[in-house]
Amino acid sequence: xxxxxxxxxxxxxxxxxxxxxxxxxxxxxxxxxxxxxxxxxxxxxxxxxxxxxxxxxxxxxxxxxxxxxxxxxxxxxxxxxxxxxxxxxxxxxxxxxxxxxxxxxxxxxxxxxxxxxxxxxxxxxxxxxxxxxxxxxxxxxxxxxxxxxxxxxxxxxxxxxxxxxxxxxxxxxxxxxxxxxxxxxxxxxxxxxxxxxxxxxxxxxxxxxxxxxxxxxxxxxxxxxxxxxxxxxxxxxxxxxxxxxxxxxxxxxxxxxxxxxxxxxxxxxxxxxxxxxxxxxxxxxxxxxxxxxxxxxxxxxxxxxxxxxxxxxxxxxxxxxxxxxxxxxxxxxxxxxxx
Length: 339
Ligand code: SF4
What we know:
The protein is of the alpha/beta class. Helices cover 33% and strands 19% of the residues.
């Protein structure tokens, strides 16, 4: 049986573990420092712990920091990593370097239950929730860790469908005893699962990105079946009345599909739908996937969309496509190992 990992435990949980092992209380802080700040991957590297205590830890736990099993590099510098999970599944993570920043796109589940009709991960169905340790390992084992400026939960899975482990991950990333990152460097992207929206808003201060993709209920339900169980309008009403503090950002993701959600009536409806929300809209080029019949909206139309939204006082940007040649772009991630 695989040993439980300490990566992913909060400081309170580490303290409990330490007390169960009858080790001195202060070792919990030392272990947190070794794992979360110094990123060591073995107990033997924790040199201020006694040999006996290191042996005890080795017998009962693993640190939980391990390397990806496959790495693929795109012509544009994007790198996709495949990780093995404890249960023998695979999950992908994407490193996206830019001139002045480097973003890591991480996964929270293997596969996904939500079945968005344009997404490879959704097509695969759901396999398992990742533990906080497995989510954090995508960051802690990242070869370009030193360069990371941002983390986005936009990889495989729906973060709000694995909310406890995602919250635990955010706690490690933003606590003083953990990585001590500002939550403003982290964005959690969701299709909008009403039942867990408040937890996300209240228990983290991370930026929030909501996948919108259409302002019309029927059309959104066709693209994103979640619309039937958790419609977008009540979520928007809740977001309108929520007290947004400081620089915390709310954005909407809008993948553009040719002839489907890129018309003037969509622009008019978006303006009505987003009224009263301090937000931005990220327009995303659809990356053609042979399994699906959707087509990519032209660059000209995307620019028209962006400019018209901006004229209507909705900040809109076109997100650069990255890593399409290695299937690392938005909607293309999958947990199938290449032969
Ligand atoms: Fe799941 Fe996100 Fe893909 Fe929808 S877009 S199926 S929520 S991974």
